[in-house]
Specification:
Layout lengths: L1 E6 L3 H13 L2 E7 L2 H9 L3 E4 L9 H4 L5 E4 L9 H11 L6 E7 L10 E2 L10 H20 L3 E6 L1 E3 L5 H6 L5 E3 L7 E3 H13 L6 E4 L7 H12 L6 E3 L7 H5 L6 E2 L2 H5 L10 H20 L3
Parallel strand pairs: 1-2, 1-4, 2-3, 4-5, 5-7, 6-13, 7-11, 8-10, 9-12
Helix pairs in contact: 1-7, 8-11
């Protein structure tokens, strides 16, 4: 059987693991920093381990011995990726490894003043977060260049899906419509992330990097407006960017402005996006959430 191990078993990894377990022929393992989540994952068929900066895997040679596919989704710090720092040398000695994926972000490209860019664009991050991601990418790619390990980089746009979208911020009453003329964000539905990862596993291209995004970059205030219409909720007022009271973290996301090309995942991996734009994706989120609500409300 194939065995997937996810360092940082978060939202995207959870969707991937669910898909693999549903098809059979896979064991799925992963790490979390939380003991409660560790127990919850185990109940869903995912063997989980505690891992963070202060707690590396206790016996990595044993835990990783039969792993065939490795996915890294741990957030980096100033020194790069914690998985690489703690277990890079252990990964070199994994005997059955067929594929490695590192989930990065499009922040490695920095600000491009709204230009369209592809994977050949120069990497010149303009934020601390982007610089950390670039350092982590370089660490993982060093295992490919120096040792021939099957490393793949996935530069994810803004991730959304059921339970994690503009619909949820509106329901929570925290959604705001910020207007910065000419500024756009790229996005990707979690189900499309999963199909990209699966396609790469089935068609490895060690050393490759992929932009993982939908077809239509769009201003955030348009997404909020559309989500409000789906929920029949009033739209929040439009606030000019220079007048918006925002945290430094929130404001920093508006520092980068670029439009991402996604032709490589289509041409090389054969991807046809399920959700080509935020309208299709939000409608699917709402339908999935309504379906889940009906299931939970059914009498036992």
């Amino acid at each position: 059987m194939n065995k997937l191990f996810c360092f940082g078993y978060g939202y995207s990894c959870d969707y991937l693991g669910h898909e693999l377990l549903g098809h059979g022929g896979w064991h799925v393992l992963g790490t979390t920093r939380d003991h409660v989540k560790k127990d919850a994952l185990s109940q869903r068929g995912v063997k989980a381990y505690i891992f963070d900066y202060e707690h590396p895997l206790a016996d990595p040679a044993l835990i990783l011995k039969d792993v065939t596919h490795l996915l890294i989704s741990t957030p980096p710090n100033d020194h790069g990726d914690p998985t690489f720092q703690a277990h890079g040398h252990d990964i070199l000695n994994m005997p059955n490894l067929k594929w490695i994926g590192y989930l990065s972000t499009t922040g490695v490209y920095g600000n491009r003043e709204g230009e369209w860019i592809d994977e050949a664009a120069e990497l010149r991050p303009s934020s601390k977060r982007g610089s950390r991601r670039l350092r982590a990418e370089e660490q993982w790619m060093s295992l490919f260049h120096a040792h021939g390990l099957p490393v793949h980089i996935f530069r994810l746009a803004g991730i959304y899906g059921p339970g994690r979208s503009a619909l949820d911020s509106i329901r929570a009453g925290v959604a705001r419509r910020i207007d910065k003329p000419g500024h756009v964000f790229s996005r990707i539905h979690v189900e499309d992330i999963v199909q990209v990862l699966l396609a790469s596993m089935n068609r490895p291209h060690p050393g490759a990097a992929y932009n993982v995004c939908d077809d239509v970059p769009a201003p955030s205030h348009e997404v909020i407006s559309y989500a409000c219409r789906l929920l029949s909720k009033p739209e929040p007022p439009l606030i000019p960017f220079d007048q918006a009271d925002m945290s430094p973290m929130a404001r920093s996301f508006y520092g980068d402005n670029k439009r991402l090309k996604n032709a490589l995942i289509k041409d090389e991996l054969g991807i046809e996006l399920k959700y080509k734009n935020y309208e299709e994706g939000l409608r699917a989120c709402l339908a999935a959430e309504e379906h889940a609500l009906k299931l939970f409300s059914l009498p036992a």
